[in-house]
Amino acid sequence: MSTEEPTIGVRRAPAATKFDPKDLPPAGHVIDGAFRETPTAELLDIVDPASEEVIARVALGTESDVDLAVAAAVKAKEPWARLVPKARSEILHAIADRLADNRDVLVRLESANTGKPISVARDDVDGTIDTFRFMAGAMRATTTMAAGDYAESHLSVILREPLGVVGVVTPWNYPLLMAAWKIAPILAAGNTLVIKPSEQTPLTTLKFAELVADLLPAGVLNVVTGLGPVVGSALAEHADIDMIALTGSVGSGRAVARAAAETLKRVHLELGGKAPVVVFEDADLDLVATSLRAASFYNGGQECGAACRVLVHESVAADLVDRLVAQVRELKVGDPGAGDDIEVGPLVSKAHYDRVLAHLDRASAEGARAAVGGGAFDGTGYFVQPTVLVDIPVDAACTREEIFGPVVTVETFSTEDEAVLRANNVPLGLSASVWTSDARRSHDVAARLDSGTVWVNSHLVLANEVPWGGFKGSGYGRDLSIYALDDYSRTKHVMHYHGR
Ligand code: NAD
User: What is the pLDDT of residue 190?
Assistant: First the structure.
């Protein structure tokens, strides 16, 4: 795609800040409390997307690795479930403390494996620690309906129980944080688990398992590395797994739900997003532009809630584009080690870089114009220019499909009803934002948007106390908050006859 504007360059890191192999976890799957290497296992290269260098190799797991890990999780489930909440809570607090003590190594490892800026990796690790702290407290406050007589001479008691063993599959965009969003509530609710991290970014999940190994009984947390269609689908199909929880793309969600159908296990899906950003004519346009600088380009736009699809009232569209382009031109792009002020790093892999560039080519072919950016940066690393697309034909693919890169589309609307209709007119419904100074409109439009989260005059602000999850093609089930604890628990009704 051709661009009208000169592009900003990529700042490179000094060699001294590059990846340190001392940070790596031991090799192997984590099964029954120990790292287990299979000498004959095929290995998968783990690549630093800023340097394009192989920084580690991990095992390509097989179905028999999954069987061993599930057997360990089954063996561990009863004693773990029997612990009173206080005991499990103390372990979760100890995990949070251990992670806090090792914050720097986790930050370095995460940014080396994903290419994400140090500031984003710090947010991820801090968010991870807070998730464990929140779940350690929240689990002790969970309760069920009060006991009572609802049928004559029968006392009903509702118990909350763990599900048993949960299979977890995580994506590459926030490897440690997405693992924590599953592991913390799953353990808090009294389940054991087997987790398969993304084949591209397994390092911090393995490091996590290494760091907390002495805090958890053997078999409570198991990690099997490898490919989705092998290890992930073996988890989804496994007869001894009670729920499969996946964060990833819509296609993987479908595959997992299909595989889970045979055993009728529960399914928990956090899938893609294409967040509309609905900007009315009375919005504070400076606030919109500065907020989108972060909310659209955070983690290089590889973010399921990214503010990627702007719908702006036609009367202020030109003004907003000018302000947004000015912000985007100032974004600092570079290697993670090139300074704490770097805002955008490379994309996670060559395959994803090619995918995002193909989206840009297709947008151009469909008639869209890049007001800034529009292509790749030269040189080493999978760097794509932060891009704002304008003059987009209605229903162009770039406004409907998840690009998952540093690309924002801007379209216009003329009425409130049209804005709502177009905002909802995609198959995904994870998150959205409304920008207006009219209180009636902010409530009404937020209520009409088909998204699991709606921000008003803000975007991409999350907290552990509040739920995160989608509608429609973005999946079902909730991460974070007490709703996640509900999802990883089951209720049982016990009725006692006490008639005379
Ligand atoms: P992906 O679907 O390619 O991979 C996610 C995980 O699923 C990986 O571990 C992969 O190995 C596994 N997988 C792939 N095929 C599978 C199969 N057939 N059976 C079982 N597992 C399988 O997704 P990705 O590219 O790693 O991550 C990006 C996607 O994740 C985007 O669509 C993004 O929106 C989504 N995401 C959603 C949230 C959310 O909270 N809703 C958060 C982060 C990312």
Answer: 98
